[in-house]
Design brief:
heterodimer, A: 601 residues, alpha+beta, five-stranded mixed beta sheet, five-stranded antiparallel beta sheet, 19 strands, elongated, B: 378 residues, mainly alpha
Chain lengths: 601, 378
């Protein structure tokens, strides 16, 4: 009995120890509970929110672009696409079969859809078909009961209603590529498009707008449960450009099948009224990623549709440069209106014989006649007399050889040589021959069509340093600086240009017009693409039009109208067009007539 | 058997029923209702698929509890060994041809219900040890010879259950047995010796663990080791606790659980779910209810003058304590995740039945406090 009581006593004692052990365990648990739920609560609250809240970005609609008359030239079009949410249909293949009866799917599309269905979670929408027409959408809506899980999603697609007309001005948008990726979280949004070239690129930030965010509650599998908070951003700003679509179209059409560029400026404001590069391409092709086939066709076209020749094409100005040389000489008082040189058809400069384009010669002529006939000898003489640096200074005053940033890609500055330039780059002394070549716009001199138009505008507006611009400004511009060129000199040059077109024996006589008394002035230019060898010269010159296209001369024309009170200036370059007077001048004439008819203010 | 006539007590069923501790029963019902409520929330506010069944099972097992509480206390003594050996036999059957569920063989499928012999064994082993030591003298308990037999019969089911493999249940069984050995007075130094030997054998034991068990232990030591794999559970569980804070996110508003970041929210991780929605305050209330149940259990034990009855209560109480401690510690990252549910709260049939059975046995022992010191007296 004693033993039994002893056993019970020990059991009791040890049970007390067990109870203490239990209490200790509860203290540990409660301490841990305190540590997790009070001490570290904030840390875990953040982690819990990170778990459940998914922030998505709302892509703002891109800003619309208008032409100078308020016509839409770049917009966002509603794009309807049909998607399938697998978990919402009892039978995927049945739904797909129904869908196919309404909207045809190619074999490839079907394969892709089936692969996508397998790859994604069942609540993720799978794209069935994009760019649905209204007809398709209404058909799908009508048959909605047969199409469980099929939904119509609306998206925005950038479209260019004028297609190829504005390709080189507006450029295009495309998906963000790795090298574009910047800090903005918008760039991470799948399907987000950014400007890839043209104004779409240079005005990208303005057009993009501010992205919004929406905070969504998601479960462990990423499915959205509800919306917690929304911050709508702001839509992209719209932009108005200075181009008139009607004139743009007239200019583009005037080129026909020719390759080249044209720029039309308002000579007082510098606003670009038309800027085309031919041939062009359809920027709509790029919005959703251009196909390999289209891209290759554009890339391998020898007429380089992808290059904006108006700002990136650098050409010898040829005889159009004689305007600059004439002004430089007149301003330097090296010649006056009566100074005459005798053209015999050729002259020796150093050891080299320089020819006039008219081999029999023009006889004695003054500067106005020299412009009218585009005599080379006169300008060889003049250029040698004043030297390249005076020409260089005048050219720069007129905007040549310097940046004219209008917000397009790959804008070139052209090149206006000087003695120093040749020394620095070629380590050679400037020669009289160099001066002579430069005097007729050959040799080292290079310009772009935009530069030529600017130069002409500065001359015919009476010597004001207008800057070309593509963006329509709300407030009026502050007046342009008056250049240091006398009215007298400008009038002489303008008279020369007037006669080029309007004199019966002017080089561009065939392009003349008279629109209610409004006439055109201008200057032709034809530049060699290749050197003519002595051998060829002896053998008799082959007609340019018989040469392969690539080897033919470039044809240039700069023109302005009305001749007595200039408002518009145009520069036209027709690549391998053979003749400035025969090809470029008529195009310029058509464009200026259209501008006058439209009476663009 | 003349001593078994108790003049002061009414031993009719009616009399026994009114001697049951209604405080104890109310606490048990309260826990089951908390469990039902939590399971209702776990199903996003639905009785399906867990809460309704849970309540139904509780109702059935409440009847089982009363049944076990009201049968003659002597039967437990009489059938202690038989019950143990039946449980052992069933464990062997499971080992030989068990049903494969959740990657571990734990059930015998009787068609209408699945029996988990390891749950039976939790009671069987307690009865076995209690009966064994109640017949032993203090000298016997202190002798090495005296504890060899119960050690062997404790280790036998432990090994079988490890082989299933069910590490959690095996550990619980082992610790229940060890704590009972401790309660009866086995000397401290023997535990120290076994502890040292155990530590020495740890590297060997490590190699016997399944890879997933090894992973669980490694993950416990460093949950960031594999945050998307085995560490995922415990990281998400801690986030749920922490983000619940002092007062919780509110009933039905636990984001970690309702958005499925927390796995196994209705079984092993139910305390996490409860704590996310009701915070530390809720957790303390739940712990307090459990503490009261345990305290009442020890009170019953002290009131028992019968050695066998007292030891059975201590064994079953200890078993219940281990459930709570291991489950809550593991979901809070204090122990490796070993798959031990929280009784009456977690969803799951066999655990509910076995724990209610042990409450029934505890109640049965508690209403016969004046049973003589030993059933072997005559």
């Amino acid at each position: 009995m004693n033993n039994k009581n002893e056993k019970l006593r020990i059991l009791g004692q040890r049970t007390i120890v067990l109870i203490l052990l239990n209490l200790l365990a509860f203290v540990v648990i409660i301490a841990r509970l305190y540590y997790l739920q009070v001490f570290e609560a904030d840390k875990y609250k953040v982690m819990s929110d990170e778990n459940r809240i998914s922030t998505r970005f709302l892509v703002p609609p891109r800003g619309t672009i208008y032409d100078r008359n308020g016509e839409v030239i770049a917009k966002n079009e509603q794009d309807f696409q049909a998607v399938l949410i697998a978990e919402q249909t009892p039978n995927i293949s049945e739904t797909l079969a129904h869908f196919k009866q309404l909207i045809s799917l190619t074999e490839d599309e079907e394969k892709k859809i089936n692969a996508e269905i397998l790859r994604h979670r069942r609540f993720i929408p799978i794209k069935l078909k994009s760019r649905l027409s209204w007809d398709d959408v209404s058909k799908l809506m009508l048959h909605a009961p047969d199409l469980p899980g099929v939904e119509i999603e609306e998206g925005l697609n950038r479209t260019y209603p004028f297609a190829d007309l504005y390709a080189h001005v507006l450029g295009y948008v495309g998906p963000v590529s790795d090298k574009d990726r910047k800090d903005s979280p918008l760039y991470m949004v799948p399907g987000f498009k950014i400007g890839k070239s043209g104004l779409e690129k240079s005005l990208d930030y303005k057009l993009q707008g501010q992205g919004g965010t929406v905070k969504l509650e998601v479960n462990a599998y990423g499915r959205v449960m509800k919306e917690i908070e929304r911050q709508s951003g702001s839509i992209g700003s719209s932009v108005q450009i200075t181009i008139d679509s009607r004139l743009q179209k007239a200019a583009y059409d005037a080129f026909g099948n020719n390759s080249g560029a044209a720029v039309v400026l308002d000579v007082h404001s510098g606003e670009i009224l038309a800027l085309i590069s031919a041939p062009s391409y359809d920027p709509n092709l790029f919005t959703n990623g251009i196909s390999y086939k289209h891209w290759n066709a554009l890339l391998n076209n020898e007429r380089t549709p992808l290059i904006n020749k108006a700002v990136s094409g650098q050409y010898s100005p040829g005889s159009t440069f004689k305007i600059v040389v004439a002004l430089a000489a007149l301003e330097a008082k090296a010649i006056n209106a009566d100074t005459r040189y005798y053209c015999s058809g050729g002259m020796d400069i150093g050891a080299t014989r320089f020819h006039c384009w008219k081999h029999v010669g023009h006889g004695a002529l003054n500067v106005i006649e020299a412009l009218k006939y585009s005599c080379d000898i006169f300008f060889y003489e003049t250029a040698i007399r004043i030297g390249i640096d005076k020409i260089h200074d005048m050219a720069l005053q007129l905007g040549l050889g310097q940046p004219l940033n209008i917000g397009l890609d790959n804008q070139k500055n052209g090149l206006i040589p000087s003695e120093q330039w040749k020394k620095n780059t070629k380590d050679a002394v400037w020669t009289k021959g160099d001066s002579a070549n430069s005097g007729i716009g050959q040799g080292y001199v290079l310009i772009t069509p935009l530069h030529l138009a600017t130069m002409l505008a500065r001359v015919v507006n009476g010597g004001y340093a207008v800057m070309p611009t593509l963006i329509k400004q709300k407030q009026s511009l502050k007046p342009f600086k008056k250049l240091n060129i006398s009215k007298h000199s400008i009038d002489i040059v303008k008279q020369g240009m007037y006669e080029v077109v309007n004199a019966i024996d002017g080089t561009a006589h065939k392009a003349k017009f008279n629109l209610d008394g409004m006439r055109m002035g201008g200057k032709t230019g034809t530049t060699q693409v290749r050197r003519i060898s002595m051998k060829e010269r002896k053998a008799g010159i082959i007609s340019d039009s018989k040469l392969p296209w690539r080897l033919r001369n470039h044809a240039l024309f700069i023109g302005f109208a009305p001749a007595d009170n200039p408002r518009y200036a145009v520069a036209v370059v027709v690549e391998h067009g053979s003749s400035g007077s025969g090809v470029a001048a008529p195009i310029a004439g058509k464009i200026l007539q259209e501008a006058l008819k439209l009476n663009i203010q | 058997m003349s001593e078994l006539n108790f003049s002061s007590t009414n031993n009719s069923l009616y009399g026994k029923f009114f001697r049951l501790s209604f405080t104890y029963i109310i606490l048990i019902v309260l826990l089951a209702l908390i469990g039902t409520m939590t399971l209702y929330s776990a199903a996003n506010g639905s009785w399906e698929p867990w809460a309704g069944k849970h309540l139904l099972r509780f109702g059935i097992s409440l009847l089982l509890m009363f049944g076990l509480a009201l049968i003659d206390v002597r039967h437990y003594y009489k059938f202690a060994y038989v019950f143990y050996f039946i449980s052992l036999l069933l464990l062997i059957v499971v080992e030989v041809s068990g049903h494969i569920g959740m990657g571990a063989q734990r059930w015998i499928n009787f068609g209408f219900f699945k029996l988990q012999p390891s749950e039976l064994m939790k009671i069987g082993l307690v009865l076995f040890i209690a009966r064994y030591f109640s017949a032993m003298t203090m000298q016997g308990i202190h002798a090495i010879r005296g504890i060899i037999i119960p050690t062997v019969f404790a280790l036998l089911p432990v090994v079988l259950i490890i082989l299933e493999p069910d590490l959690g249940t095996a550990m619980m069984l082992l610790f229940t047995a060890a704590l009972m050995f401790f309660a009866v007075g086995v000397q401290w130094w023997k535990f120290a010796l076994v502890g040292i030997l155990g530590l020495a054998a740890l590297p060997v034991a490590w190699n016997f663990l399944h890879e997933y068990q090894q992973n669980r232990v490694l993950t416990f030591l460093d949950p960031e080791r594999d945050p998307l794999g085995t560490g995922y559970h415990i990281i998400q569980s801690k986030i749920a606790f922490g983000s619940g804070g002092l007062f919780g996110k509110g009933f039905l508003h636990g984001t970690q659980t309702h958005l499925n970041f927390l796995p196994e929210k209705h079984t092993d991780f139910i305390f996490t779910m409860f704590s996310e929605e009701f915070g530390m305050v809720g957790g303390l209330i739940l712990l307090f209810v459990n503490l009261l149940i345990l305290a009442l259990g020890y009170l019953f034990a002290f009131r028992c003058r019968n050695y066998f009855a007292r030891l059975v209560i201590i064994g079953l109480n200890t078993n219940y304590f281990l459930y709570i401690f291991i489950n809550i510690s593991m979901v809070m990252g204090l122990l490796p995740v070993v798959g031990v549910p929280l009784p009456l709260i977690s969803y799951g049939g066999t655990v509910m039945f076995s724990i209610m059975a042990s409450f029934g046995i505890i109640l049965c022992m508690s209403i016969n406090p004046n049973t003589p010191n030993s059933f072997d007296d005559d």
